[in-house]
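Page 37, continued from 36.
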């Protein structure tokens, strides 16, 4: 037997190691209570909740374990016996991410970097019963139309499909708009989006109800807040400190004092809002940055005073529900790509759900039928490099064209976020394009190397005889799908899942529109997103839906696929050595 710890410095690598071993048939249990273990030399170990116990490798040899340990830089501890172990038997699981609106790419990249396999599912596929192929369904923050843009494409049929799937044992995870979609909402929202009633999954009432630019939701603000861990004994919260930072982006907070849904359990408040620092902009100061950044009374301050939850969990039928009003998938930086400790809750939730499975699902790779393909596979990646070059040119032109005193950069027009003025956001946001371009070029070079290694492994000996190679071949095709996929304009999708090239074209188009509008003037408005589709500030840097966010998402999508291919190549090469 072996144990794998999950201390704060190793949890990410431990997660990847465990997922690799699970897919290779290892028997692994996840401790839900502290326990003891004894090593061969008689030393006693005191081990925390969240520790992994590898009780049976079921591998061809220990060489696969040794190769995985070396790859991830984390090593298991052999133990002779254990004392009072209580835990869950883990299984590989399939994760679906909602692609019908919003920004699912941070989730996709994080799950990939933690060794999970996640795929995108459209509202059309949800309505057709596509969730039956998955164990966990993640719904991200919203697009330009927020919750309405996610729910309307589902309709009552799709919303009911989701609820039925959860009640049969699936797990729903929502972030921001995705959590609003499954909570108990204001009547004013149901009047414009009645289908949401069919998707209410947990007895959590939206606390910050209000009719602002988002019907039924009033924003507390944008930036990094402090959260208080209310349930360190809950599987989702294993390894999280008593207090931790997390990014909040306009989203909902929850009142758990309700029992309005008879099919749902009481809600469990996992985390409560504890405060905010300098890298947070209160909604009351979105367009008044030069005034005190913390007004005497704020919506967020009220939530702190009342101990209001920003993360809740519960059950509906046989299934589990986890709602993040804040964003565990976002980082603390302006681009929100440098994810940190809160993402551990996503990994914990996935492992918690995996223990609910009766048996492991065999690994599969989703293909998008009818998507164009380059030939030979991978040759289409050159189009990405050209598109990145066009975006770089557009940013340079915009930088030269926009004057520092542009009226739409005044604080009454360019909203503050993360405690920064609009002008500072503009400056940093433009610099982010150069950073992402560098990542893109690195990813393309890595992709070429992986393609060469994969083709050498696949050879001409046929794939059917080797399931691992068959899976690798499917992953190469799925990378092609991700690059070339185009969501039809006829669906009028509110951002959501698009292919890499489609997102690059969207980003360039937004930059072009910003250049065309650079001399425009805009009337002041109390709505910080009043000129979402016309203000150069909003088009280029104003949110995670602006051109710099779309550009980053194209890299995150590419990164997620390359990580999966890289992992499969490692498994095949390690098996060949054995």
């Amino acid at each position: 037997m072996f144990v794998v710890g999950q201390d704060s410095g190793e949890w990410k690598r431990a997660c990847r190691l465990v997922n690799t071993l699970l897919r290779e048939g290892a028997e692994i249990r996840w401790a839900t209570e502290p326990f003891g273990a004894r090593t061969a030399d008689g030393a006693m170990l005191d081990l925390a909740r969240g520790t992994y116990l590898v009780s049976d490798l079921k591998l061809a040899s220990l060489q696969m374990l040794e190769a995985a340990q070396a790859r991830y830089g984390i090593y298991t501890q052999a133990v002779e016996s254990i004392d009072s172990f209580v835990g869950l038997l883990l299984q590989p699981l399939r994760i679906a991410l909602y692609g019908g609106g919003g920004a699912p790419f941070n989730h996709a990249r994080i799950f990939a970097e933690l060794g999970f396999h996640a795929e995108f599912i459209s509202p059309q596929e949800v309505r057709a019963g596509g969730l039956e192929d998955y164990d966990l369904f993640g719904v991200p923050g919203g697009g330009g139309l927020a919750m309405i843009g996610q729910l309307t494409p589902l309709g009552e049929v799709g919303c009911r499909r989701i609820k039925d799937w959860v009640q049969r044992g699936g797990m729903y995870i929502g972030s921001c708009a995705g959590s609003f979609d499954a909570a108990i909402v204001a009547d004013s929202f149901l009047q414009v989006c009645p289908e949401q009633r069919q998707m209410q999954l947990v007895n959590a009432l939206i606390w910050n109800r209000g009719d602002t630019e988002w019907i039924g939701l009033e924003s507390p603000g944008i930036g990094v807040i402090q959260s208080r861990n209310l349930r360190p004994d809950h599987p989702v919260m294993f390894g999280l400190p008593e207090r931790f930072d997390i990014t909040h982006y306009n989203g909902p907070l929850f009142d758990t004092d309700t029992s309005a849904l008879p099919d749902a359990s009481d809600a469990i408040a996992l985390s409560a809002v504890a405060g905010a620092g300098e890298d947070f902009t209160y909604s009351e100061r979105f367009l008044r940055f030069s005034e005190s950044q913390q007004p005497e009374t704020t919506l967020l301050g009220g939530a702190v005073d009342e101990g209001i939850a920003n993360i809740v969990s519960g059950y509906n039928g046989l299934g589990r529900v986890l709602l993040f009003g804040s964003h565990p998938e976002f980082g603390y930086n302006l681009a929100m790509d440098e994810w940190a400790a809160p993402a551990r809750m996503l990994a914990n939730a996935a492992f918690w759900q995996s223990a609910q499975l009766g048996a492991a699902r065999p690994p599969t790779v989703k293909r998008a039928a009818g998507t164009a393909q380059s030939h030979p596979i991978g040759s289409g990646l050159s189009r990405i490099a050209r598109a990145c070059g066009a975006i770089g040119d557009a940013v340079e032109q915009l930088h030269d064209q926009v004057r520092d005193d542009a009226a739409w950069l005044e604080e009454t027009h360019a909203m503050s976020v993360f405690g920064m003025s609009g002008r500072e956001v503009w400056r940093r946001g433009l610099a982010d394009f150069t950073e992402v371009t560098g990542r893109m070029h690195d990813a393309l070079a890595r992709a070429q190397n992986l393609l060469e290694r994969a083709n050498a492994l696949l050879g001409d000996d046929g794939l059917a005889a080797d399931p691992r190679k068959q899976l690798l071949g499917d992953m190469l095709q799925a990378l092609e799908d991700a690059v070339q996929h185009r969501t039809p304009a006829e669906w009028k999708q509110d951002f959501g899942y698009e292919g890499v090239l489609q997102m690059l074209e969207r980003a360039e188009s937004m930059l072009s529109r910003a250049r065309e509008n650079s001399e425009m003037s805009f009337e002041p408005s109390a709505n910080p997103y009043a000129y979402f589709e016309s203000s150069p500030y909003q088009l280029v840097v104003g949110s995670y839906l602006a051109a710099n966010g779309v550009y980053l998402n194209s890299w995150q999508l590419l990164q997620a696929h390359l990580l999966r291919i890289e992992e499969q190549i490692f498994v095949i090469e390690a098996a060949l050595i054995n």
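The chain has three domains: 2-89, 95-354, 381-577. Flag for discussion at group meeting. Residues 381-577 form one domain.
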